[in-house]
């Protein structure tokens, strides 16, 4: 087998692994023990049908062994013995019992006993989680008892009669069940290790989320400080611009006054006056550009509109969220138009809108429900519908809250820390690109979301 399919099980807490294996083994052992207990009537019925003369004697023997098994189980449980010890005692008593009975009854009546014993051994090794060594040990004990008692009761005969009357089937099934016990032990052990790895990964992910949240607060504090510095810079620039404009204006008044009396100036003075005028004009131009730069709107999103088919983008968004949907056991159903639907919007931000909308729908709907995504053109517009039929909808009150988180720009920083921000971001981006995002949520229609863009 290639190592490609193997998972490196490192950094597993062996103490915790042992505890989980013991807990699983104890559960399976309880199931097996009570299965053996309740199998007593089946063997009694077998005695009544095939050993009519001796069924009372066999019933007494079975009751004695049943009492011993029950005693080991109750006493071991109260004493908190290891589950493997209790299991080996109970199973051992029953294996010895079926082996003795199969060895002492007439060989021509042994076939039903061997068949039922084969089923019992196979069932045990299919249910139990124990080391394969124990399955081998019990099979060896059973084979030894059966062969010994058969040899005592049939001194002159060979073993052909034993094999042909069910003994061969019992031996083969018991040997095969050892392989089942081995495979089950390996599979359950590996599954337990996987669960521990997943649990550890989830724990680390929670820790990382907490660290990310802490860093988020640090970044917020830094952003707040940068905002204060930016406000200070902006105020300083505004003051400088105001003073510069006043200075340029005063210079211009003085220059105009001198120009009115230019007839009394010499040529050198006129050249100097022209030089000063040119410098003042440059200062006026610079103050104007500086004012435009200071008053320019910063942080505004620039969209790059392009014409493209929206169907593949909707399909990609659905595929990207398949894993997230499967984690919450949500069934995604996609119904797309077979023909092209051309729109003229920003493709990058459309992907952002679809991802935000679908991921938040998956996040807030009920576990195990289904989502159907439809994309069609209707009345000169592209319509994308996300439908979640459920008897327990999110509710319009909650959706109104989620979709209007960014309604007030002054509250955007506070809203960024709240849940459901994706809805509000998707709505804002949609409206800025000329589209509309509407929603409904009630018991009648479930949760319904509709994106609408004009066709190209």
Give an overview in words:
The protein has 456 residues and is of the alpha+beta class. It folds into 2 domains: 300 residues, no CATH class; 149 residues, Histidine kinase-like ATPase, C-terminal domain (Heat Shock Protein 90, 2-Layer Sandwich), CATH 3.30.565.10. It is 68% helix and 10% strand. It contains 14 helices and 7 strands. The strands form 2 sheets. It has a 5-stranded mixed sheet. Strands 1-3 form a two-stranded antiparallel sheet. Helix 6 runs antiparallel to helix 7.
Q: Give the averaged pLDDT, no decimals.
A: 80
How far apart the termini lie comes to: 55 Å
As a whole number of angstroms, the C-alpha radius of gyration is 42 Å
What's the story with the biggest beta sheet? 5 strands, mixed
Q: What percent strand?
A: 5-15%
Structure annotation, total helices: 14
| Percent range of helical residues | 55-70%
Number of domains: 2
What low-confidence regions span 5 or more consecutive residues with pLDDT below 50? 1-10, 408-417
Strand order in space, largest sheet? 2-4-5-7-6
**How many E-type strands?**
7
């Amino acid at each position: 087998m290639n190592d490609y399919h193997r998972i490196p099980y490192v950094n597993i807490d062996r103490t915790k692994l042992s505890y989980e294996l013991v807990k699983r083994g104890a559960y399976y052992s309880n199931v097996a023990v009570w299965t053996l207990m309740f199998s007593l009537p089946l063997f009694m019925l077998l005695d009544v049908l095939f050993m009519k003369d001796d069924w009372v004697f066999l019933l007494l023997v079975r009751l004695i062994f049943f009492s011993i098994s029950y005693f080991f189980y109750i006493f071991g449980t109260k004493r908190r013995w290891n589950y493997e010890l209790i299991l080996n005692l109970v199973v051992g008593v029953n294996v010895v019992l079926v082996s003795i009975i199969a060895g002492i009854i007439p060989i021509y009546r042994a076939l039903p006993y061997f068949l039922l014993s084969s089923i019992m051994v196979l069932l045990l090794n299919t249910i139990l989680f124990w080391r394969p060594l124990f399955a081998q040990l019990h099979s060896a004990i059973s084979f030894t008892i059966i062969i010994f008692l058969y040899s005592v009761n049939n001194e002159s005969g060979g073993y052909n009669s034993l094999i042909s009357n069910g003994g061969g089937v019992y031996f083969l099934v018991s040997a095969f069940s050892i392989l089942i016990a081995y495979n089950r032990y390996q599979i359950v052990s590996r599954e337990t290790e996987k669960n521990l790895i997943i649990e550890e990964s989830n724990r680390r992910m929670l820790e990382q989320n907490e660290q990310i949240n802490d860093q988020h607060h640090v970044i917020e504090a830094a952003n707040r400080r940068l905002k204060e510095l930016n406000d200070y810079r902006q105020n300083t620039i505004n003051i400088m611009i105001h003073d510069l404009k006043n200075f340029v204006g005063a210079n211009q008044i003085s220059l105009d006054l001198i120009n009115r009396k230019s007839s009394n100036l010499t040529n050198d003075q006129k050249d100097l006056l022209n030089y000063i005028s040119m410098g003042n004009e440059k200062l006026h131009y610079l103050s104007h550009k500086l004012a435009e730069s200071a008053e320019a709107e910063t942080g505004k999103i620039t969209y790059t509109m392009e014409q493209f088919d929206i169907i593949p983008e909707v399909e990609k968004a659905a595929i990207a969220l398949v894993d997230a949907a499967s984690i919450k056991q949500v069934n995604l159903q996609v119904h797309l138009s077979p023909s092209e639907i051309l729109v003229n919007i920003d493709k990058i931000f459309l992907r952002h809108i679809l991802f935000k909308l679908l991921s938040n729908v998956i996040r807030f709907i009920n576990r195990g429900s289904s989502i159907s995504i439809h994309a069609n053109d209707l009345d000169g517009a592209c319509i994308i519908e996300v439908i979640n039929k459920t008897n327990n909808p999110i509710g319009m009150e909650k959706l109104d809250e989620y979709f209007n988180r960014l309604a007030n720009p002054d509250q955007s920083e506070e809203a960024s820390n709240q849940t459901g921000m994706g809805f509000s971001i998707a709505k804002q981006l949609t409206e800025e690109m000329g589209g509309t995002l509407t929603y409904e949520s009630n018991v009648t229609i479930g949760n319904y979301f509709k994106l609408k863009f004009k066709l190209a």
